């Protein structure tokens, strides 16, 4: 998930200290709030990408190609059984992210971080850096074995969902020197997650859940967030062509080795397109090269997902559209909590804001590529412990970086943690907020909630939402039909 969303463009003037000394020069470039509509369009780098070629309606190629489950001798994966028909561009993606599993996030599993007794361990990178390998591997293996199990796939299926999105760090992908001209070491990361992923792909097939594999952490970090594996004010992914080409090699490897077990390969999560220094141009070239790598290495039925890189979907008009490409999806993320401007919204205004961004997403999709909201949540505060990073407080209650001119929005009590403390009116709102975002997602190609589980932040947990009653067991249930009309 993003810790510095579109609102970053506002915030940087209020200080972007701590570990996030980023984007300071971007403040004046983007206006928040209306980013979707206001970001000036960059001309497509490939003029042959025709804008106005609606892939989803008039062009059959992507949806007419059946999903492939061809056997792959290089794969250790169990024999798949075909999922029921799902037609991309026609059927709606209804999914959850398996966040905090193969890429650790302090706020999703604070206990994993607390167990290290070291405050300097703030992400998976520092976990590998500051613990000896055996200790780190023990902690990680226990986590990999327990955080997501087959029971989760059973429960996800029972909740009427049809997709999971699985964030994956490059360090978990066992590239060998036969797979890349570049380095294959992953220091200081601890490798070992791959077999757990492969096992989960078997559960997904068994329980007819489709899988979006998402490179969530790239070499050098594509955004500097802890959820990229490495929290840093100086993410270097785009600075070094070797980092980028290693990421392409990683995609090729994934496609070859497990492509027959996954439905969608998302090339990279949330590259920080708002950074200067050619970052956004690097992202654009990488989407193109990554797409080609997946197409060369795998079956044409595999879908490829790109993201808006925080630039607004309109920035990608005509990009990787048919006929240059086929079977491509756009991933848009939305959280309304990472700036004072957003936190100032009332419950009703949050709902309204969600209704309002549909137009631009829908307009983009209808003349470009299938579009989903691949991350969103029920949170309306940033109160979840360590959501902004281990040891970092919340903007909501003014405990974010002390140097920032924090604005107090309210107490965090009973907005996060266990839903035992949630008031009836808060839970009623959570239902409404869930529903409006589902409605908006279903007016395009679908939605993937962030996240399935969190140790101690029930407003972010689909599982707890089902249990606590604000998320229905049938995602087509509506308490608020026509909520945006
Ligand atoms: C928070 O929830 C707990 C548990 O239900 C309750 O006892 C407490 O009064 C609540 N606090 C506030 C400030 O509402
Ligand atoms: C979905 O689209 C329909 C028209 O196609 C529109 O009436 C409705 O308001 C839209 N819903 C949302 C949530 O945007
Ligand atoms: C993992 C990896 O190879 N990272 C490299 C990314 O780019 C930076 C900047 O050039 C290098 O220092 C890293 O080694």
Q: What key phrases describe this protein's structure?
A:
485 residues; alpha/beta; TIM Barrel; eight-stranded parallel beta sheet; 14 helices; disordered N terminus; beta-glucosidase activity; hydrolase
Descriptive report:
The chain is α/β, with parallel strands linked by helices. The chain has one domain: Alpha-Beta Barrel (TIM Barrel). Helices cover 31% and strands 9% of the residues. It has helices spanning 8-11, 35-38, 61-64, 110-114, 124-130, 133-147, 150-158, 194-206, 241-258, 279-297, 340-343, 347-367, 424-443, 462-468, and strands at 93-97, 163-169, 210-217, 264-266, 303-307, 328-333, 370-375, 446-449. An 8-stranded parallel sheet has the order 7-6-5-4-3-2-1-8. The longest helix is centred in the C-terminal third of the chain and has 21 residues, at 347-367. Residues 413-414, 420-421 line the site of one 2-acetamido-2-deoxy-beta-D-glucopyranose.
